[in-house]
Amino acid sequence: MTDVKTLDNMLKKIVTSSSKTETTSLLYATYATIILSTELFKLNVDLVDFLTPILKKLQSQPEFSRLKRPIEFKEYVYKSRSLIIARFIRIIQKSDDKSIDILIEEAQALVNSKLNNHPKGRKDSLKPKKTRKNSVDELLKEFGRY
User: Distances in Å between the alpha carbon of 123 and those of 51, 83, 126, 128?
Assistant: First the structure.
């Protein structure tokens, strides 16, 4: 199962969940999958374009607007996906209901855009390897192996 389909299933569970603890737990898993996915974001730098607007939207929420500094990740944070996850889990942990709704909407928008961009049955992941002649293999074929 691809990361996009996994995320779609997680988001469906989040929408149907009734308790806040279950929702936040599924949100942790959802954003960990998003951040770790090289299928969605090949390079760590690509995460900047996805996370920065989310952090700006969250900044307007009451629980984050009281902070002395704006919510943003410094450049060194984007060098490590595990560090990004650690910081983002803290943000989810401090979020209230409205912020959680924003996080769910952003994840849903990402999944919908990826589902619409990739038609079913198409594989983008790997290009077929070029076959080039290897002189050692040719010699072994010609003279046989003993």
Answer: 27, 30, 7, 11
Count the residues in the chain. 146
Instruction: Give the Cβ contact number of residue 104 at 10 Å.
Output: 17
CA distance 104 to 40: 17
- pTM metric for this prediction: 0.73
- How far is residue 134's CA from residue 142's CA, in Å, rounded to a whole number? 12
The candidate with the shortest Cα–Cα distance to 117, out of 29, 39, 26, is 39
Q: Tens digits of per-residue pLDDT, 14-33? A: 888 888 889 999 999 999 99
Please report, to the nearest 10 degrees, the dihedral formed by the alpha carbons of residues 69, 71, 72, 77 taken in order.
Answer: 100
Cα–Cα distances in angstroms (integers) from residue 1 to residues 27, 56, 120, in the given order: 19, 32, 12
76: its two tokens: 């060194």
| Cα 7 to Cα 20: distance, rounded to the nearest angstrom | 19
Q: What pLDDT is recorded for position 29?
A: 92
